[in-house]
Structures are given as structure tokens and as C-alpha cells.
Structure to design on (507 residues):
């Protein structure tokens, strides 16, 4: 630690700290100040430093209502993509153990999962990433790091302040989970900010969902490690995704063991003398009320951008009053010169870590005068890490039909069975893929959707092909890798329009 303290890197805790974009002398303390130490903010700051800019990063994590807090790296590293994927892997291993018996492995009974062991391993990995961001990245690039509350960073100014000046300011503070405003919700519930840092098993859990993919992912790994898990859905699952695929995902989850309470809304949460949480909810169509007890209630009802405490209204930064997000131009600039915003906090941007990282890097190059390239937000691939993974890139079938008309698109599809499922005798009824194309001309691919094993790994390659303008004929010209699930994509030949059976037969 002594060597760490002697380094040029500056680590400060200052309760009277503000950031300005101008100085009467025309000189600045920094070329760039990035507010937000998440994946996007760190990517932007590191890229700026690599091209010769003097950079500072301001970061702060407001503890959740339950008191959960974490280190540098933002949502993805601490309470999002990384711990989620690791716990998803824990659940997949549980399924693999069951499959293994069919493949001849002699596994003694009973098999059980220990939450504490998994949680400790996952949390230790996350802490190693926190440390890596500090030392290997920021310290090695001489990027200054400051920790303070966001409300201390911008206007209005109190007396006796410390002012830091910068030529450009980038806001990349992301968002935090919402909690429903019903009796007992705040006192007794948790969010995705807490679930990955629990030291003991959450036990019997109900997840209240407002179309969130995170909710289904959490429900999937909780079910997979053997916990009684219910998902309460107000309307539909995976809003914004292809709805045929969303139904396949939830159908598989129901067969997997996850319970669903469809078209229901919670009314109140009460803590019983036994310590259990009694949840009262209403079925929307009938107005009937129901009750059950749980050990844990997880709110997954959307996220709010971290803009309220920054004083942006006094700076003149234009914000969408309904969403709370910052309105930005294609170059990520705001309504105030020299202030930029990107990632989840920016209006109209995909709430995905890789897009924020890419956008941050490109912005750093533009601000340094090294490039004029803008971020292309079209055809960004993503994957939902549910028990049966769902990967997609491009337009959903609904969106393609909306843009091109029902007669202007052709949808090729197939139900297939992964080879891994055969010996294990696993149901593959929801393993499905579809390629949405323009109907005329070269049949340019508009969207590609896939449910099945390793969907993310498969979809990454096809995302590149869509960026290159892939057409259906390109698929047919591609030789598959046999035997793989990805091979089924380049073999697809049945259209929905034909009405023919799309079930793949043979190997």
C-alpha cells in the first residue's frame, strides 16, 4: 500500500468539490473529466489517456436501500453482467450434472447447491475486477480518480469549494433500479443491486417483473440452483424483444421449474412475526386478490438514470422530463457546449454495456481530434442469459413488419434439437431460430433470433455478418460446422409464409 500511496495517481475524497468547463485564464486542470466509473466511463477515460489527454474520473456508489455498495466498475462489473453470468453458469452446471448421469457419469446422491460458496467466489472475482480497474488501468495511465457524491460534482456552488476545471466533461453515470411505490416495498424488498451480494441464500423468492430481461435471468439461475422461484408479470416478458422468442423463453422456464403469475400486480408486502414476507397481489383481469409467503422479494421494475443529483437543470442540460435521461445528439453532445453524455443515461441509447464502451472510446477519439467516427447504434447484438439462452441481432419480426410491411419481409425459421439434448433426453421444444429478411432483391437480413445453448457465442459471429450487409443468399453459400447449433442457421430454408413444418429432421 505504501508504493500505491507514493504513485502519481491522485486519490481524493473531497466533500466540497465542483466541476467547471471553463476558466478565466483559458487553461484547464484536465482535458477531460468523466463523471461515472462504470464500463462506459472507464472505457472513455482510458481511451482518452491513451491518445494523450489528461483525464480525471469521478465516481461514487450510493448504497442501495439495503446498504449494498461496491467498488469501481459500475453496474456491469458489480451488480450486472459479470455476477449474473457467473451465477447463470452455476445453474447450467447443475443441469449438466443431471445430464451427466445419462452420459454414464456415476454421481452420488443427494446433490445440493451451497449459496455461500458460490457467492463468495463470485464476489471475490468482482473485487479483483474492481482492483484491476484501479491499478492496472487508471493508475498505469495516470488517470486521477476521485470518490464523492454526485450531488457534490456540479451546480449550485456552496462557499469554500474546490473547483476543478476541464475542457470537456462527459457524463456516464448510468442508472439504478426502481422500486414500486406500494406499502412495504422499500422496507422488505431488494433489487438487482443486492441479489448478487447476499451472503446467504435468498430462499423462496418472488420476482416482480416489468418486462425486464434481468428479472428472467435472475429467476433462471435461482430456479437452476434449486430455489422455489416465482415471477410476477404485469403484462408481457421481454418488452422490446421479439415476442415469439420471449414466449419460447418463458415456456421453457416454466418447464424448467420457474413459476409465473401472469397479468398480476403486487399490492403490499408485510413482514410476519415468523420473519417471512407476506405478499398480496391482484390478478388484473379478475381483480381477485391472492397472498403467499416468501423469504425474499426482488423488484425488477425498470431503472432510473442517475441525473437528479447532478444539478444538470441549473447548467442548462436538456433532459427528457418523462424518462429523466439526457437528450443527446448523434455525437453524444448535450444542449450545453463541452458537456457530453452516453450510455444508459442518454436518451434513445441501448442500455447495454458494450454499446457504452464502444461509444465512450469513439467519443474520446473525437474529443482528442483523432477521429470523426460516430457510434453506430444499429444492429447491436445481445443475449438474454435465461436457462434457454436467447440471442438476437437486428430487428424483431414485429419491428421488421412495422417498417417494411407484412408482404415486404420473409421469415425463415426452424425448430431444431441440439445434439447435446439427445442422449440427455432433454425437451428441445423451444429451441428455435428465425432469420427475418427483406422479401425482394438480395433478401438482406434484417434480424436474426436464436434460442438454444451458447446463444451469445453464436450470435456474436452473425452480428458481424449483419454489419457487413449479409443476405439470405450469403447464408446459403456458407458451409456449416458440423455438428453445431450454429449450423442450423445457415441451413434454414422453410418460410413462415409457406406454412410447412419447420422442424429439422436428421442430423
Amino acid at each position: 500500500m505504501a508504493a500505491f500511496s507514493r504513485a502519481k495517481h491522485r486519490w481524493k475524497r473531497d466533500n466540497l468539490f465542483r466541476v467547471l468547463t471553463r476558466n478565466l485564464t483559458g487553461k484547464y486542470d484536465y482535458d477531460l473529466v468523466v463523471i461515472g466509473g462504470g464500463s462506459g466511463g472507464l472505457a472513455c477515460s482510458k481511451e482518452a489517456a491513451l491518445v494523450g489527454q489528461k483525464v480525471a474520473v469521478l465516481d461514487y456508489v450510493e448504497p442501495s436501500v439495503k446498504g449494498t455498495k461496491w467498488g469501481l466498475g459500475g453496474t456491469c462489473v458489480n451488480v450486472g453482467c459479470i455476477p449474473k453470468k457467473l451465477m447463470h453458469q452455476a445453474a447450467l452446471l447443475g443441469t449438466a450434472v443431471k445430464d451427466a448421469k445419462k452420459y454414464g457419469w456415476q454421481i452420488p446422491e443427494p446433490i445440493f447447491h451451497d449459496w455461500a460458496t458460490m457467492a463468495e467466489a463470485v464476489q471475490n472475482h468482482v473485487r479483483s475486477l474492481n482492483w484491476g480497474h484501479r491499478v492496472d488501468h487508471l493508475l498505469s495511465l495516470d488517470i486521477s480518480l476521485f470518490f464523492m457524491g454526485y450531488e457534490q460534482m456540479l451546480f449550485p456552488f456552496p462557499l469554500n469549494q474546490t473547483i476543478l476545471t476541464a475542457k470537456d466533461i462527459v457524463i456516464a453515470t448510468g442508472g439504478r433500479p426502481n422500486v414500486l411505490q406500494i406499502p412495504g416495498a422499500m422496507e422488505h424488498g431488494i433489487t438487482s443491486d443486492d441479489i448478487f451480494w447476499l451472503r446467504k441464500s435468498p430462499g423462496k423468492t418472488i420476482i416482480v417483473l416489468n418486462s425486464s430481461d434481468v428479472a428472467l435471468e435472475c429467476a433462471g439461475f435461482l430456479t437452476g440452483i434449486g430455489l422455489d422461484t416465482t415471477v410476477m408479470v404485469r403484462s408481457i416478458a421481454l418488452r422490446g424483444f421479439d415476442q415469439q422468442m420471449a414466449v419460447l423463453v418463458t415456456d421453457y422456464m416454466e418447464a424448467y421449474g420457474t413459476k409465473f403469475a401472469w397479468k398480476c400486480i403486487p399490492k403490499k408486502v408485510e413482514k410476519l412475526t415468523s420473519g417471512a414476507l407476506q405478499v398480496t397481489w391482484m390478478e388484473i383481469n379478475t381483480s381477485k386478490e391472492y397472498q403467499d409467503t416468501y423469504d425474499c422479494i426482488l423488484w425488477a421494475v425498470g431503472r432510473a438514470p442517475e441525473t437528479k443529483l447532478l444539478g444538470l437543470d441549473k447548467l442548462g442540460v436538456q433532459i427528457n422530463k418523462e424518462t429523466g435521461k439526457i437528450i443527446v445528439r448523434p455525437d453524444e453532445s448535450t444542449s450545453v457546449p463541452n458537456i457530453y453524455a452516453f450510455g444508459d443515461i442518454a436518451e434513445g441509447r441501448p442500455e447495454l454495456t458494450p454499446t457504452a464502451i464502444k461509444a465512450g472510446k469513439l467519443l474520446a477519439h473525437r474529443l482528442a481530434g483523432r477521429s470523426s467516427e460516430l457510434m453506430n447504434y444499429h444492429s447491436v447484438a445481445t443475449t438474454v442469459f435465461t436457462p434457454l439462452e436467447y440471442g438476437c441481432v437486428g430487428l424483431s419480426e414485429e419491428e421488421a413488419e412495422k417498417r417494411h410491411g407484412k408482404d415486404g419481409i420473409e421469415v425463415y425459421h426452424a425448430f431444431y434439437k441440439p445434439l447435446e439434448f439427445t442422449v440427455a433426453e432433454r425437451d428441445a421444444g423451444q429451441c428455435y431460430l428465425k432469420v427475418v429478411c427483406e422479401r425482394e432483391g438480395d433478401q438482406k437480413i434484417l434480424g436474426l433470433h436464436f434460442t438454444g445453448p451458447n446463444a451469445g457465442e453464436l450470435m456474436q459471429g452473425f452480428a458481424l455478418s449483419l454489419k457487413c450487409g449479409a443476405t439470405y443468399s450469403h447464408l446459403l453459400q456458407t458451409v456449416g460446422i458440423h455438428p453445431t447449433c450454429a449450423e442450423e442457421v445457415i441451413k434454414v430454408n422453410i418460410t413462415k409464409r409457406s406454412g410447412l413444418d419447420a422442424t429439422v429432421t436428421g442430423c
Remarks:
- Residues 115-139 form the longest helix (25 residues).
- Confidence is low (pLDDT under 50) at residues 1-17.
- The domain at 388-498 is CATH 3.30.390.30 (Enolase-like; domain 1).
